Amino acid sequence: MKKKENYPLIVFSFVTFAFYIFFTHLIIKTDDGHFLGILNEENFKLTEWLSQRYQTVSGRTVSEFLMMIFLKINPIFWKIFASVSFIFIAWFLQKLSGVFSGNLTQKQKNIFCCCVPFLVFIGALNSGAFWFAGSFTFLFPFTAFLLSVAPLTFEYFEIKYNKVILNILSAFASLLACSQEQTAALTIVFLLVLFVANAIKRNLKIYHAPPFIFGAASAVWLFTSPGMTGRIEMESGSFARFNEMNLFEKILCGFSNYFGYSFFMSLIVTGVFAVLIFMTVSSLYNGKKEKVFAKIFVTLLVAVCGGVNVVYIALNRTIPDKGFEKLFKSGDYDLINIITLALCFALFLLFAVMLVLIIKKNSKLGFTVSLLFAAAVCSGVVMGFSSSIYASGQRVFFFTDMLTLFASAVLISSCKDKKTVVVYNTMIIVALIMFILNCFNFALLEIPIMG
After folding, report:
1. Based on CB atoms within 10 Å of each CB, which residue in 142, 299, 302, 329 is the most buried?
2. If you average pLDDT over residues 146-171, what whole number do you get?
3. Quick one: angle between helices 210-223 and 139-156, nearest 10?
4. Is 281 in contact with 298 (CB distance < 8 Å)?
């Protein structure tokens, strides 16, 4: 990148580091205090504690090991590590966006990429990235996931990178990426897809294998842990009907989980993605059919995310997310929820068709965006197979928002619509507002908005 194109990342690095230094802190009344108390017990031994966690709670050994190490030392090291994670995310996205050409300059693309993290819904962002305990389950595994797939991604898109350093880091990063259920699935699937894609292009090398081998080993350790089974049984008490649900119901529950968050809560992320899809399809097609279809898509989007949301709250006196939770916990499939889910599925189907239209005109763009969007959706839907689906709050959608915004960054980087700059400027302003809001949020509240 040229020197001027690096300025956005430099400014972003400074702002992110300053935010972590001056605003984030250990929140003692949450898991931070719980784990700190355990660490300060007189007979505490890390190896014994990790073994106990593996046997009774979860197989997230790598991430929990790191959490206790960082908890033992000065918090400044966690702040630095978290800042570097954010910087790497922005850097990776800048590399990816540079592959596609549209109306925006590379400097503008880089600025948008730096704004992406602050566009994540505040409840998911704070609990997934700015909360000490939460960062080891969400921010760090997500960064490790990107680092794990970076070499194969850069090989496929023919992006220049330091092959020795990045491939070594990628192998070790896969251990952390696969120590969390959602990122384990993302890492393994993305690596397999990239293996096939690079094999077709004859870019596959023997040194690309370690991330998959290490990641698969870490994933097996995670998913076969006795603690995972124990935790599922323990948490099933809050969702007693979970074990009675069949496969179809669990998938439907997972989709309702995704719909309740993305279509009725995280409207900024869903909105910018939808607008960019509409603009991309409109710019790629001149035919009346495609343009009419795109307008139908936008109309249904506004009707579902806006009108249905308002009507649902008025009739049920609760938000759809909580309404869906009550629905699946009780098994009472009332008419309002059935209609709401049907409209959500109709909108989701239109998203899929719009992506197919993009693939027909630009396969590289279409498949890239489709893979990212599919991963975003699956990250939310997969929670339908866990009895803890309603116990973890909005932080489980950190990956969903990030991946959707990655897809948005690719779309805005390739869009040739004249109004692209309007969307770009709007998102910069929104990101700035959300950043300032979070500064006050962390400065004034004992426990910030955590979702």
Report:
1. 142
2. 95
3. 150
4. no
Indicate the burial class of 446 (C-beta count within 10 angstroms; 0-12, 13-18, 19 or more): exposed
Distance CA 351, CA 349 (A): 5
Global pTM exceeds 0.90: yes
* Selection from 248, 244, 240, 183 nearest residue 211 by Cα: 183
Nearest CA to 26 out of 124, 106, 131 is that of 131
**Residue 180 within a domain:** no
- Report yes or no: 165 and 127 within 8 Å, Cβ to Cβ: no
Q: Does a structural domain hold residue 24?
A: no
pLDDT digits (tens, 9 = 90+) for 367-385: 999 999 999 999 999 998 8
Q: Does any domain span residue 320?
A: yes
Q: Residue 2: its pLDDT value, please? A: 63
How far from 297 is each of 301, 348, 350, CA to CA, in Å? 6, 10, 6
Closest of 37, 138, 46 to residue 86, by C-alpha = 138
Domain with 372, as residue range(s), is 240-417
For the chain, the domain total comes to 1
**What's the sign of the alpha-carbon dihedral 137, 139, 144, 145?**
positive
437 in a structural domain: no
Task: List b or e across 278-298, with b for residues whose CB sees 16 or more CB atoms inside 10 angstroms.
Answer: bbbbbbbbeeeebeebbeebe
